[in-house]
Amino acid sequence: MKPCRTLLSFDYGEKKIGVAIGQELTASARPLTTLYSARGQPDWSAISRLIDHWRANALIVGLPLKMDDSEQRISQAARRFANRLRGRYQLPVYLADERLSSRGAAAILRERQLAGTPLSKEGESIDAVAAVLILDTFFGQTPAERIKLC
């Protein structure tokens, strides 16, 4: 039987953090919101409210990698953010490859706009949609492929 966890996914950026919610049982996700950082510090109170409100059982953070699988400067910042989440909330935290997620999110939003579908929800920002794609990547991995922070 598949686990039935509620997951929050984060598309970490130094100025903005996209957030998505997902359900492991159905392997489905949807955008929630975009949070803003002040002087490089995430809005921890907003993150706490989201975790409490949605009763998240695990957290997923996108790990930005180059096309050759090497890390970049923002990769280390995303790892620090993931470690801080784990330390603050005592929840399982996983890293998921977020390569091209922002580009994919932009394409999804552009297609919706061309199709005449209104973007009615605040959560439908490029950052929050990128967080959905990160969660989709996580759902597509086998448990052995998942990078869990210990």
Task: Describe the structure concisely.
The protein has 150 residues and is an alpha/beta fold. It has helices at residues 44-54, 73-89, 101-114, 126-140; strands at residues 6-11, 16-23, 28-36, 58-63, 93-97, 147-148. Helix 3 (101-114) crosses helix 4 (126-140).
Describe this structure in words.
The protein has 4 helices and 6 strands, in the order E-E-E-H-E-H-E-H-H-E. With 150 residues, it is of the alpha/beta class. It has one domain: Nucleotidyltransferase, domain 5. The longest helix is centred in the middle third of the chain and has 17 residues, at 73-89.
Question: What is the fold's blueprint, element by element?
Answer:
Blueprint: E1 6-11, E2 16-23, E3 28-36, H1 44-54, E4 58-63, H2 73-89, E5 93-97, H3 101-114, H4 126-140, E6 147-148
Parallel strand pairs: 1-4, 4-5
Antiparallel strand pairs: 1-2, 2-3, 5-6
